[in-house]
Amino acid sequence: MPINPDAVGAEGSPSTFSWDSTSSILYALGVGAGMTDPTGFELEFTTENSHGVEQQALPSMVVVLSLRSEMKGAGPLAALGSFNPAMLVHGEQSFTLHKPLTVTGAASASSRITAIYDKGKAAVVVMESTATDINTGEKLFTTSSSMFIRGEGGWGGDRGPSAKFVAPERAPDHVVSYQTRTDQALVYRLNGDRNPLHSDPQFAALGGFDTPILHGLCTYGFTGRALLHAVCGSDPTRFVGMAGRFASPVIPGEALEVKIWIENDNTATFQTFVADRLVFDAGTMTFA
Asked: Where do the TM regions start and end (predicted)?
């Protein structure tokens, strides 16, 4: 039976959450920081006490903080009704930083279902959340994500947008390659996403996968690191936001290749591949 399409507009209860130096380091390690820089090990993201190095936070960590908020509060997904969680995969993800992300902080946020689309054999549920500083009330960041739930469509609703992304017909301005570890999902899940799809072979099989797959947001974080270093000169204060669509799963241990095209003074487009297989598509980035 299809999920409840009338859940659009449902809101979760506000929740407060915080992060600290260890949280920032753990996220950085979870998305591969320190693995590919033998001279510096990205020490500004992976340590807090290196001489002459000030710790910084990776901008894409906001997607983990948003998830942390949803897990603490009474989220709006209950309004959807019941569905098989093994049939849920991440569809799209975006974030916008209203100010640079700090290494430590505390915020308040709540999530809202902004759209539900009927894809026939699946449903797409879109959620948005904006976090504000609990001390100043300033907006910190906004995140938006869509969930693709197989087997939950078919009620005759709006299919939603379907514009196809076309990469520029020229060589990329930057190509960044990162190797993931075979235990990458086991490290990344320590950031809070304990979905057994990424750790339990039996649960992964229920979702139709031969082996546990990498978190989509881990692939997203690897891609964000590539954008940070290639486009922003490794300066997180220049990173404003990124968005895109998950195209196919990544298996821990596979190598990622991020192709980046600079469009103008503050916009880039990108795609992420495993060999010739597209795994993250329709990527857009804004920067200062």
From this structure: none
- Number of separate helices (H) and strands (E) present in the chain: 6, 11
Q: Which of 67, 23, 13, 18 is nearest to 48 (CA)?
A: 23
Instruction: Decide if 272 contacts 235 (C-beta within 8 A).
Output: no
CB 55 within 8 A of CB 47: yes
Domain range summary for the chain, segments of one domain joined by + = 5-287
Phi, psi dihedral angles at 225 (to 5 degrees) = -60, -45
The active-site residue out of 6, 51, 98, 193 is 193
Strand partners, 95: 143, 242
Long-range contacts, 188-195 (Cβ 8 Å, 24+):
188/30, 188/31, 188/214, 188/215, 188/217, 188/218, 188/221, 189/215, 190/26, 190/30, 191/23, 191/26, 191/27, 191/30, 191/64, 192/64, 192/67, 192/68, 192/71, 193/64, 193/67, 193/217, 195/85
CA angle 220, 243, 7 (to 5 degrees): 100
Top CATH class, 5-287: alpha beta
pLDDT digits (tens, 9 = 90+) for 161-183: 877 899 999 999 999 999 999 99
**198: annotated active-site residue:** yes
pTM across the whole model: 0.93
The region of weakest confidence among 8-22, 27-41, 93-107, 194-208 is 27-41
**Known active-site residue 51:** no
Query: Torsions phi, psi of 231, nearest 5?
Result: -100, -40
pLDDT digits (tens, 9 = 90+) for 7-43: 999 998 888 999 999 999 999 999 999 986 655 689 9
Point out the catalytic residue in the list 51, 90, 158, 198: 198
Query: What is the rounded CA–CA span in Å between residue 79 and residue 61?
Result: 27
